[in-house]
Amino acid sequence: MRKIKHIIKRKNKSPSFFSKISEAISKARKNVLRKKQEKQAAATSQQNKAEIDIIKNAPKIDFFKKQAQKLEQRRQAALHRKQNLKLYLEKAGIDLEPGKLTRIIFNFAIVVNLGLSAYLIYHFSTTWGITWGTIAAAMAAVWVLVFIVLILLLWVFFYFMLDLRIFKRKVLIEDVLADYLQLTAANIKAGMTVDKALWYAVRPRFGVLAREIETVAKETMSGVDLKEALEKFAAKYDSMVLKRSINLLIEGLDSGGEIGDLLNRIANNLQEQKLMFKEMAANVTTYAIFITFSSIVAAPFLFALSGSLIGVIRAIAGTLGSVTNAAMSSGLPLTFGQVGITSSDFRIFSIVSLAIGSTFSAMVISTIKKGEIRSGIKYIPIFVITAISLYLVFQASSDYLLGFVF
Description:
- This protein has 12 helices and no strands.
- It is an all-alpha fold.
- It folds into 4 domains: 78 residues; 71 residues; 111 residues, Receptor-associated Protein, CATH 1.20.81; 119 residues, no CATH class.
- Helix 4 packs across helix 5.
């Protein structure tokens, strides 16, 4: 531009004024184009370098993305397990946080491991005289393997007891639900509103149901909608009867029908269902008696006779052994083998078999009569103890009658 100004000042002195101006303009354009090309080339090179770096670091980026996805999946799974455990605790009626429960089980496992470690150290050092290296290895095994197995067993036992508690609460609710609905229907027909009818129908004999209805009444008084409180109450129990009854009540409230008649019909249907279950249980009583007799009376008697038969065979084998020795001394080719089963081994086998058989018999009977295996859990110890006790009595009697003492 300076050249152009200089040329303009000298326009009267130079005969080729316009040609010089055009040359200066063309040079300026070339410089501008060259600078643009250089900038574009620099930007392109930087972009290519960035793409090359991305391509080189692509495996690392994919690895970190996969790790982040795995961590997120683990976090979601842990949150899901925590929510399920909280729901289980609510259904069982236990007001306890999942984190606190985990700490209790963990601390209990530590206490048990400490006691087991102390016993092993004392036993190894005083009885066997084992070195400290062996004791340290045993402690490591206890605190790694036994600790993990113990925590798993504690969780399994806890869930088992929790499931039984949930089932017990379900049975208690279903037993008194029909009577409670009838009282509620009577209150509604007397002119009460639905929430007041539910509240005034509470009786101490209703037990768990009475406490839950009190909770529903408190929530409705604090501003919670009655339908929402009833749905929350039904979700606490693993009972289809309760959920269907509450759903029918909510539908009746939405449709504006006669709630008193609706509750009376629900109560009558529940009572008819109970009577039907009782009739079905009475019809299969013969099968239950047969299974009970075969598992806790017939099986112990047969096992006891089998044990006595083994004693008789062993006695005969001992007598034949002396005959075999005499025959061999006289040159006769007579040989008799020994009995491979001992009386103690057969006794252990019999007790284990009776325990397993009586356990499954109690489960089958509970399924036949109640429709639920969990309802027969309380019969399992009775069946097992009775079967093993009768086996010992039959065995002692048969041994006394046959003159064999094991």
